[in-house]
Design goal:
single chain; about 775 residues; two-stranded antiparallel sheet; mainly alpha; two-stranded antiparallel ribbon; Lysozyme; 4 strands; glycosidase
Length: about 775
């Protein structure tokens, strides 16, 4: 969930005509902006992707992403990562082109023409609207839908002159607001700062306010109005973008306020992601305001982000000792052959930087010198200012501690994990889990383990984190001989029956189902509030106008903010009616993640076509489980790695599987024919299950990371099919965070889908141990 604070970006008088191209003096412009940076994503019905689940990768190339939420996965080899600002929806594959929704259903009596009209419509809405009921429909509201469509179509063609003319000719003020929103988000140089700020002043509750403010700042930089106007525009607030920092600093210098100018540009230089052109502009225009220590602070930030080349660009502005330091850290980032030599060339005056210690640790860890890396980690500072990026230090601790466990030194591994100073809640919980797991399973110290698992409970807010905390507290209590306390923790974990650890806990208690709830339904109060929501009205109008591809930010924001399971049900129903079942699932997943009772919605049973050919002996629930995790049932999904369709098949795999089935290989059908993709995907799944002698754990691991990795992990950690091997510990031992997460999510999905499809009972422990040892 985002935290917002009020932000004012005044431009000195209200713009005289909306279509004006220049900057005008404007009134205060309040916008709610997240208190932490949010990444901008393009308006598309298809959210950003999961980390690529490509074929087997080497540890140095293992995928890593840092995101918010429990479905985050971080591989154990540090490589350059995406660092998203805006919430990235979980488990979403990306489509190569916007998905064109099916035609909206005919208009019904619910006609959300405007907020007042929506309220009147809500009064006559049905008393209960369920997932299969008559939920909100899309009104074409006469010629207005056509007019709105024409304006948005012109914008899609980048024909801004026509867009402005059509926008100003719209008779309905809310249609104009929708076009204004699309213009404000566009980032086009044809859209003025006055246009953007006027929209934002009228729409404080709309999504992505920081993106909109950043676009306004970029427009202000392009327009370069008089310095006094710019200073009044910021009204003492700090810019959110590099462009804003440039235009504001320039204005402050021009008006003689060099102290404030230095403060603004230094803050941006220390913290903000920038394009190469923005960096060059700042160095060219404001080098006199930036000190060597400012350049070193930026270099540190860039190096912790593995942006070695950008850090090297700063070498002309720092001392010779710091140039050697940057060279050494860049060599370690690149895993260069001369990294040791570069480290040895760093003068003593620069070796006292914590980043030098970090580079030594990373250098040794990459060469699997875990004991040396551990000895260096014992010297690491604990305060955030010295660490600069505490989460990156935890990543090194995690990799080193796992290496030590494999080498038979769990005691040092525990000390390394327990000594973390992770900053983000996700990494804090991950660090506490590792410390607790080492203490319980390798040091046989349940008391110490319990304290770490309790810390996870204190940190966590989502079902996955909380179920993990309670389940492992139960395991610690059980190991300590306190069966009553253990059952109490298992009961708490079992309330999260849609999760892996919750299901393990339910089996501990002898329960034979995951506890899937009934489909959520909306009462008349939910319906009335929902239909009055202006973002819902905007969704209706965009879909009716044929611009469903613009709706994801609205769906995303509403899924985070609507207050009830009933309204999540209505929002999910809206996406389904628009022909976007994958968006319906993402909406429901967010509701489930928030603790709302939307179990049935979050595990839909409509995603696999009935015409799919299922191989004999294959559990249909497993196919659903994979498809939910791989594509969120988006038949048009294409991953960055090139995997396609419902079950995210790589073209080579699809070709070979089609041949084995005697089917023609038709690449276009992988994303256009859901039944074709599911038929090939189900056959490939059955091949993998047979290849691993029935093991679901190895099959799921191979589907995500490649068969060669699964075989490698058998050699390293034992065979999960062997009764002497603890399969739960085996999954926890998987060195790639993405694959650990993937196996757990698909395993939990399988249990839920058995219950949803009526094909079996809860049997997660049996599924973990399934198969005959090879």
């Amino acid at each position: 969930m985002k935290r917002f604070h009020s932000w004012h970006f005044p431009l000195a008088a209200v713009v005289a005509a909306f279509g004006g191209a220049g900057v005008a003096e404007a009134a205060p412009f309040p916008v709610a902006v997240p208190s932490v940076a949010s990444q901008v994503v393009t308006a598309s019905v298809v959210p950003p992707p999961n980390p690529a689940r490509d074929a087997a990768q080497s540890p140095a190339a293992a995928p890593q992403t840092r995101q918010a939420g429990d479905s985050i996965v971080v591989a154990d080899a540090p490589v350059p990562r995406a660092r998203p600002f805006r919430r990235t929806p979980p488990d979403a594959a990306v489509a190569s082109v916007p998905v064109t929704p099916s035609a909206p259903p005919p208009a019904s009596s619910v006609t959300p023409a405007a907020p007042a009209a929506s309220a009147r419509a809500a009064a006559s809405a049905s008393a209960a609207i369920g997932t299969t009921g008559s939920g909100p429909s899309f009104s074409n509201y006469g010629s207005r839908a056509g007019d709105l469509k024409q304006a948005l179509d012109a914008l899609r063609r980048d024909d801004y002159e026509t867009t402005f003319v059509l926008r100003n000719g719209l008779s309905d003020p809310f249609d104009r607001k929708i076009v204004d929103w699309a213009l404000a988000r566009s980032g086009s140089p044809k859209v003025s700062s006055a246009m953007i700020t006027e929209f934002a002043a009228s729409a404080p509750g709309w999504p992505d306010p920081e993106e909109i403010r950043a676009n306004a700042e970029a427009a202000l930089l392009r327009e370069n109005p008089p310095a006094a106007t710019v200073v009044r525009s910021f009204s003492g607030s700090m810019p959110v973008s590099a462009a804003g920092a440039i235009v504001y600093t320039r204005a402050l210098v021009s008006t003689g306020d060099r102290n404030r100018a230095a403060s603004v540009i230094r803050s941006a230089w220390h913290t903000k992601s920038m394009s190469g052109s923005e960096e060059r502009q700042i160095l060219s225009e404001f080098s006199g305001l930036l000190r060597p220590e400012d350049h070193m602070q930026r270099a540190e930030m860039l190096l912790y982000s593995d942006r070695a080349s950008a850090a090297e660009d700063l070498k002309p502005y720092v001392s010779s000792a710091d140039r050697a330091y940057i060279d050494a850290r860049a060599a370690v980032v690149r895993n260069a052959g001369n990294a040791a030599s570069k480290l040895s060339q760093v003068p003593a005056s620069a070796r006292n930087r914590p980043g030098y210690l970090f580079a030594q640790i990373a250098y040794n860890r990459r060469r699997e010198n875990y004991r040396e890396a551990a000895a260096l980690l014992q010297k690491a500072p604990r305060n955030e200012a010295a660490l600069i990026d505490p989460d990156e230090w935890w990543v090194e601790r995690r990799i080193v501690s796992r290496g030590l466990v494999e080498e038979g030194d769990p005691r040092t591994a525990y000390a390394i994990a327990a000594g973390h100073a992770a900053e983000s809640p996700h990494f804090q919980a991950e660090a506490e889990f590792h410390a607790g797991w080492y203490a319980l399973r390798f040091l046989n110290d349940p008391g110490r383990a319990a304290r770490h698992f309790k810390n996870i409970e204190d940190i966590g807010t989502t079902p996955i984190t909380l179920s993990r905390a309670y389940y492992w507290q139960g395991r610690a209590a059980e190991a300590a001989g306190n069966s009553g306390r253990a059952r109490s923790f298992y009961r708490q974990a079992g309330t999260y029956g849609m999760t892996y650890y919750g299901q393990l806990a339910r089996e501990k208690l002898g329960q034979r189902n995951a506890g899937v709830g009934r489909p959520a339904s909306a009462g008349i109060g939910d319906t009335a509030a929902f239909t009055r929501n202006e973002l819902v009205i905007a969704l209706n109008r965009l879909i009716a106008a044929g611009h469903a591809h613009r709706t994801w930010p609205l769906f995303d924001h509403l899924s985070e903010t609507v207050p009830s399971a009933g309204q999540i049900a209505l929002l999910s129903e809206m996406a389904n009616r628009a022909g976007m079942p994958h968006i319906a699932l993402l909406v429901s997943k967010e509701g489930l993640n928030r603790g709302l009772a939307v179990d049935g919605l979050a595990f839909p049973t409509e995603g696999i076509p009935a015409s799919t050919r299922m191989p004999a002996g294959l559990d249909r629930a497993v196919v659903y489980a994979i498809a939910r995790q791989e594509s969120t049932f988006n038949p048009g999904a294409i991953s960055p790695a090139g995997a396609r369709g419902l079950l995210q098949l790589m073209p080579g795999t699809a070709r070979a599987t089609a041949s084995s089935l005697g089917l023609a290989y038709q690449p276009s059908r992988l994303t256009s024919d859901a039944s074709y993709n599911a038929t090939l995907g189900a056959a490939h799944l059955k091949e993998l299950i047979d290849k691993f002698d029935g093991s679901y754990v190895l099959t799921f691991a191979a589907y995500n990371a490649g068969s060669s990795r699964a075989y490698e992990w058998i050699q390293r950690f034992g065979d999960p099919r062997d009764p002497r091997v603890d399969a739960i510990d085996w999954v926890e031992s998987i060195p790639y965070g993405e694959t650990r997460n993937y196996v757990q999510r698909v395993m939990e999905n399988t249990q839920v889908y058995r219950e949803r499809l009526g094909t079996g009972r809860l049997s997660i422990e049996e599924d973990l141990k399934r198969g005959t040892p090879g």
